[in-house]
Amino acid sequence: MLQPRDLVLTNFHPERITSLSQETDSKACAHTENASKLCADEFPLTLLSQLLIVTSLLLGLLLTPALATSVSQQEIIGGDFQILTINKEWHVATIEKKSTHGSWKTIWHYDTGFIATRVLPEKVCFASIMKIKEMPSFDALPALAEESRQMKRQGRPAKEITFIIRTPVRDLMSYGPDIFVMCNELKTYVAYEVHEPQDTYSQGSCIRLDVLHLLGLNYCRDNITV
């Protein structure tokens, strides 16, 4: 695909364009009645049209990459809508569920290695380090979500990750601007992934999220009250 930097304009000077246009159009005017009047009217339009074409081309080349960096798709999981948004430029996946039974939003930042989840109506956020190897592939995520929807899987997600909620986040901005905006006005806690026996945390107080039926996120209380 042609990139903006690959576009090279040579001899791009208004006077040069006018000269070339007049030289070409004068041949046609020579065989036309009232040639002087007709050509005088057409030369300014010729210059203007060339400038508009060049401007349109430049704008198209600049805008096309920007429009292709983010894509969204909507899936129905367990009767509720989940919206998956992929930002290809920043390698960020955002999944959001809006429901009367409880809305939530989770941001997976594959570049920085952070994951953050906002849960409503609890009005709380959890931020943690994301282990890339345990997450669905970023590039394959849209296809995996569509496959899961078509298969209409039932029961629990194929894979689950459990986090223990422990301490409040001190520097929310360090997790990135998108996570900061999502969690800034809510209580936000650091959540640590665990592979410990279930008796080390309270199973009854876990918040369980089914993300696209691909991954279950379990946030369980430890020794703090959310």
Describe, in plain words, how this protein is organized in 3D.
The chain has 226 residues and is an alpha+beta fold. It folds into 2 domains: 4-67, no CATH class; 70-221, no CATH class. The chain contains 4 helices and 10 strands; from the N terminus they run H-H-E-E-E-E-E-E-H-E-H-E-E-E. The chain has helices spanning 14-29, 35-67, 141-151, 177-183, and strands at 70-77, 80-87, 92-97, 104-109, 114-119, 124-129, 160-168, 187-194, 207-211, 215-221. A 10-stranded mixed beta sheet has the order 1-2-3-4-5-6-8-7-10-9, with helices on both faces. Helix 1 packs across helix 2. The longest helix has 33 residues, at 35-67. Mean pLDDT is 73; it is low at 1-45 and 51-68.
Give a brief rundown of this model.
The chain has 226 residues and is of the alpha+beta class. The protein is 30% helix and 31% strand. A hairpin with a 2-residue loop joins strand 1 (70-77) and strand 2 (80-87).
| Morphology call | globular
Content-based structural category:
alpha+beta
The whole-angstrom Rg is 29 Å
Number of domains: 2
Average pLDDT: 73
Q: With helices defined by DSSP (H or I, 4 residues minimum), what is the helix count?
A: 4
CA-to-CA gap between the ends?
51 Å
Low-confidence stretches: 1-45, 51-68
Instruction: Give the strand order of the largest sheet, numbering strands 1, 2, ... along the chain.
Output: 1-2-3-4-5-6-8-7-10-9
Topology as a string of helices (H) and strands (E)? HHEEEEEEHEHEEE
How many β-strand runs?
10
